[in-house]
Amino acid sequence: MKRILFITANRLGDAVISSGALGELIRRYPAARFTIACGPVAASYFEACPVVERVIVISKKRYDLHWVSLWAQCVGQWWDMVVDLRGSGVSLFLPTLRRRILRGGRRPGARIGHLSALFRDRPALMPQAWSRPDQERLASEILPDEGRYCALAPTANWDGKIWPAENFVELGQAIQARGLLPVIFYGPGEEEHLRAQPVLAALDGALDLGGQAGLGLVTALLRRCALFVGNDSGLMHLAAASGVPTLGLFGPSRASEYAPTGPKAHFVAAPGPEGEAPIAGLSTERVVQEACALLADEG
Predict the structure, then answer these.
(1) Which PANTHER family does its entry note (predicted)?
(2) What whole-number distance in Å separates Cα of residue 202 and Cα of residue 198?
(3) What is the topology classification, in CATH, of domain 3-118?
């Protein structure tokens, strides 16, 4: 049985994007077992993947000692392949038949396109999302079949990417008027909860599904929604990978690099130069129009 070590991102969004490369490896080596090394936030995302036998959490340490820790946990295994998307160089010191290392640093173009350089034939990569049967069952209890739901994700990892809360409230009210129940998603931690709180407080009847749920369950919940609308964030990428009709909202972040990728993924950007446009310039009317168009397309 082949064993493959896959070293990937700290942040959820980058981890989801990297899953396109993981999915391609799974396609090429269907009998392989994978060990994933990633940051704490992304760990539960990979745990739901059926071919993953181990997830190693990389918690940052001073002087880059987290890489020494990863090496110590992996050096005792003979690997058929080590794939390093962090450009860490750890794979140079691990026993393996093959290494594929993606150099670090930011560069122009879609991030998911950069990952195709790992393969000689440069395939078109599509991010993946997984959930276990027990997570699917629990999701069906939380969001029963008789309802119709719209997922809203009003937070992000920095304030410049966050569409104003009052705009999300207006969008939620427009969605409610069309018979959908807003479901609010956000990341773990008190800071994320505080960012989502104005939207939760203003939307009567909205469901609070943010916080501490494992990402396999979040994936299962998202798949039960008719639509996802959210800031450029890890949740946006997860929704797109899950196959949910997804509308990502972009301001100062670059859609040319981080637009959502998936079978029903879309985005709308604030007017102005890419990478500089304030997200507050993205009007509620435009987002509501785009969201309703996606709902109409889904029929």
Answers:
(1) TETRAACYLDISACCHARIDE 4'-KINASE-RELATED
(2) 6
(3) Rossmann fold (3.40.50)
